[in-house]
Amino acid sequence: MARKPGSRAEITGPRLRDAALILFARHGFAAVSMRQIAAEIGVQAGALYLYIDDKQSLLFDLMRDHMEALLTAWQDSLAKAGQGANPQTALDRLEHFARFHIRFHAARRDAVFISYMELRNLTPDNFAVIEGLRRQYETELETILRAGQAEGSMVLPDSKLAALAIIAMLNGVNTWFREGGRLSRDRVEDIHVDMVRKAVTP
Amino acid sequence: MARKPGSRAEITGPRLRDAALILFARHGFAAVSMRQIAAEIGVQAGALYLYIDDKQSLLFDLMRDHMEALLTAWQDSLAKAGQGANPQTALDRLEHFARFHIRFHAARRDAVFISYMELRNLTPDNFAVIEGLRRQYETELETILRAGQAEGSMVLPDSKLAALAIIAMLNGVNTWFREGGRLSRDRVEDIHVDMVRKAVTP
DNA sequence: GTCTATATACTGATAGAC
DNA sequence: GTCTATCAGTATATAGAC
Questions:
Q1: Domains in chain A, please, with CATH?
Q2: By CA distance, what is B114's nearest residue in A?
């Protein structure tokens, strides 16, 4: 009996992706071998190729899944916020975005890390796809900033640049925040929301 | 004659570091082979080991040199600004820091990239050294922010967190700014300075 | 579905000729 | 100072047994 007792195909695939995500985030895509991933989930290296085409498409799938989950979660969050009867101001929507961004990314640190750090390990075609998804997300914020300018509640010399700067600031949280540290997640969120609001108001 | 005509030891060492910096930034430390670096500067792989101990210490040296250059340049910039007779407000010093940060980093994109991205490829000992230098730099900004609070010109719930958030925002410039793009470097600088000032003022 | 075994190529680093 | 040659180890990916 070659098949290991208790082996189950329907869970090996997801476990492979989970293990790869963690290992890529920790050591980097190029530094992780297929053998390491296989060892992590208790199979031989050859068995991985039942679930993936090659190492490159494994990385690409992880990044695409993350970006699509991000965009979907944002749309869901928007829809939920829109259910209330009262219309939101652009500043409220900016705060909503900032809190969503910090929370979503804090819950998926490994995927975030990979999606920003391993872009250069994608083939040009795969890079273009991920880059497109990232732009889509940036545009969501930019739309809010433009609305704020139209309202007059925000003053921004360049809404595209402001969007990038705000996302960069919010992403910073991901590089150093640890649950259980000096500041609670809520406190970190509040402080960032405050700085972001002030940065865009007259 | 084994030695290549025109070979000069005094320039091969620096050329090795320059080539490694570019290749590591472009493809990642783990993805770059010693042979690639050697090919880039026109020598054989074995010859590299006349100038470095091993691949790890090559990475470490690049990162340490960058961080030390950053700290030295900041001290120089501070000294130059201090030569004027009039004392600077904390907000002026914050603006000075922001402009210095953007300019210094824009001029050394590859070194910056490596120093943030390849931390996980350092041995624990080497990591601790680089981390210490990075903290030193963060403390420079934090000192300015504390002075602003003492003056009353700034309102910050947490100066350490504010320092990290500001640096994160300023670092964002490095990931997308290209000379000759839609916005000039001065314009990008001005917009960031404006947002940073507003983010910390009451 | 997973195993073992293997093909082919490349890795970092060293030894010794010149 | 740089070369060639090489070592021992590892890489991705595949073939075929069970």
A1: 1-52 (1.10.10.60), 60-200 (1.10.357.10)
A2: A117
Put simply, the chain B residues between 43 and 62 with a CB less than 8 A from any chain A CB are none
| Tens digits of residue pLDDT in B121-147 | 999 999 999 999 999 999 999 999 999
Interface test with A, best of B102, B198, B200, B201 (most A CBs within 10 A): B198
Residue A81, min C-alpha distance to chain B (Å)? 26
Name the CA radius of gyration of chain B, rounded: 20
Q: A88: which DSSP letter?
A: P
Q: Is the CB of A5 under 7 A from strand D?
A: no
Nearest CB to B120 within list A26, A169, A200: A26
Give per-residue burial for A9-24: e unless 16+ CB within 10 Å, then b. eeebeebbbebbbbbb
Among A149-163, A187-201, B75-89, B187-201, whose mean pLDDT is lowest? B75-89
Which residues in chain A are contacts of B36 at CB distance < 8 A?
Answer: none
Residue A106 tokens, joined: 């804090």
Nearest to B20 by CA among B4, B33, B7, B6: B33
Tell me the two tokens of residue B157.
């719930």
Tokens linked to A126: 């795969």
Distance (Å, whole) CA B191 – CA A163: 12
B31 CB and strand D closer than 7 A: no
Give per-residue pLDDT as tens, B26-73: 999 999 999 999 999 999 999 999 999 999 999 999 999 999 999 999
pLDDT reported for residue A3 = 46
Average pLDDT of chain A to the nearest whole number:
93
DSSP assignment string, A95-159: HHHHHHHHHHHHTTHHHHHHHHHSGGGS-HHHHHHHHHHHHHHHHHHHHHHHHHHHHTS---S-H
